[in-house]
Design goal:
By secondary structure, the chain is α+β, with helices and mostly antiparallel strands. It has nine helices and eleven strands. α6 packs across α8 and α6 packs antiparallel against α9. InterPro entries: cNMP-bd_dom, cNMP-bd_dom_sf, Env_Response_Regulators, HTH_CRP, RmlC-like_jellyroll, WH-like_DNA-bd_sf, WH_DNA-bd_sf.
Length: 233
């Protein structure tokens, strides 16, 4: 069975809006800056606003019963946050923390639902985003049961490279620097592996000539090759 592959990255919620819709939503929002490591939302909080990231990257984590934080996803420019809790009338299901300085639009829940009522076609956009995230979570769970650690890391890095390339074009040689500044611990949490497993896998991918690494920096040098490596059994 093929290892986990997230849905093909696509431009975020903001990019899918037309100029008029963006203007209306921006007028309803309050701009805010978040420094590195600052929480954008907390797991368990009441759902009184949504957030649209304009610039920067954040990680989505969930705290387990034994107190461990598990990385579930990253969110970047144009992404919508906390919409499912607002629309479902639930408390936040995860914490979102800035990986880099983040500039965002904070939209009160009542204004966001009013915006959706004024632009019914945006409801489908929000719904499709929510469904895609559920599908990605299901694929991730399947991968943890069917593929080895190095495969999971290769697939994850390929996904992050494609996501990064939506915002910064590849270098002239085709290499893609992964934009979200994730540590080895964070990569391990995302793929359900130890830091040592991630370090060994990174060494193996370097030896294959598929990536280059630095401190919190990974550059994918051969994206097609990384995809092929991830498919190996």
């Amino acid at each position: 069975m093929a290892p986990y592959a997230a849905s093909a990255p696509r431009h975020g919620f903001w990019a899918a809006l037309d100029p008029d819709q963006r203007g209306v939503l921006r007028a309803a929002a309050r701009p805010r800056q978040f420094p590195v490591k600052a929480p954008l939302v907390y797991q368990g909080d009441e759902s009184d606003h949504v957030i649209v990231i304009e610039r920067g990257w954040a990680k989505v984590t969930s705290t387990t019963e034994d107190g461990h934080d598990v990385v579930l996803a990253v969110r970047g420019p144009g992404d919508l946050l906390a919409e499912s809790a607002v629309l479902g009338g639930r408390t936040r299901s995860a914490t979102v923390t800035a990986l880099s300085p983040v500039r965002a639009l904070v939209v009160p829940a009542v204004r966001f639902t009013g915006f959706l009522d004024a632009y019914p076609d945006v409801w489908m956009l929000v719904t499709s985003t929510f469904v895609q995230r559920i599908d990605d979570a299901d694929r991730r769970l399947t991968a943890h049961m069917t593929s080895r650690g190095t495969q999971r890391l290769a697939t994850l890095l390929a996904h992050l490279a494609e996501l990064s390339a939506l915002h910064v074009p590849p270098a002239p040689d085709g290499s893609i620097e992964i934009a979200p500044p994730l540590s080895q611990e964070e990569l391990g949490s995302w793929m359900d592996a130890s830091r040592e497993t991630v370090a060994r896998a990174l060494n193996g991918l370097r030896r294959e000539g598929l990536i280059r690494t630095g401190w919190r920096r990974i550059t994918v040098t051969d994206l097609p090759g990384l995809h092929e490596f991830a498919k190996e059994t």
